[in-house]
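Lab notebook, bench 4. Still working through the backlog of constructs that have no structural model yet. Next entry is a single chain of 297 residues. Request: give me the structure tokens for it.
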Amino acid sequence: MSIRKYIAYLRVVETGSITQTANELGYTQSAVSKMIADLESEWQVRLLTRGRSGIELTSEGLALLPSIRTVVKDYNDLGFAVSELHGLQSGLLRIGCFTSMSTSVLPSILKEFHEKYPNIRFQIAGGEYEDITDWLRRGTVDCGFLALPASSELETRFLLRDSFVAILPEGHPMASAPCFPVSRLMQEDFVKLNERPDYELDRFLDSLSEKPRTTYEATSDFALLAMVERGLGVSIVHDLILYPRHYRVARLPLDITQFRDVGIAVKKGAVPSSITKLFIDHVLSCKTQLDNFQELV
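Model written out:
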């Protein structure tokens, strides 16, 4: 049997979409549907059903999924081993990542990895922690960057500690202060990110006896930074979002230390592909650079 049927079926399961799978793999929708129909006919089982919420696995499809994953992984590992013999080291790596990590230190990590393995391709999927956890659980991505502690379904490695910092317009009276007192937030116009929940920040603000007065709500990290740069108010952000420093704002540590730990994760119990292992080893080898990223902000 052609391995492409296994690959197409697995990708439909991961994406929940025949259309997306067809686009990614370069097939027509009817071709992907026929591959799955062929598998069902040969195995005499129903693998997928279409419900109101989209494509769903049948109990038979769920039972066969681990074996299909193993076949596809072994095939990919074999392809990587053959390419390695020819000095090519080619393949695809799918990474889940949250915004501030993907715009700060991840690009330099990818650049160094690409210089070592120029024939490996990347797919970077941006999302929140819950999205990345779900993608890892479903096998939609090979590895992902997350705040720790993460789900017990994942195996994680610690990478860096990312602190909260205050950001102020450069002309603010406290722009040159050694730190920003949290108690002063109540006296300032506060710019808050409101596009999606920031659980660490919300938890920190909820812990304060007095909450800052939210004057402006921004729909993205970069809109928030631009608003502070223009003097509309002050804010609190994760240090990672300030690197590289494209915005002219003053960055001050808070007088109350708040931080999140960031790690790299894979699905617990799953055997990572050869490419995934290479990448994780590379990320861990960059730990000194990660530890010192604050100096670059």
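Notes after review: The longest helix spans residues 59-85. DSSP finds eleven helices and eleven strands in the chain. Flag for follow-up if needed.
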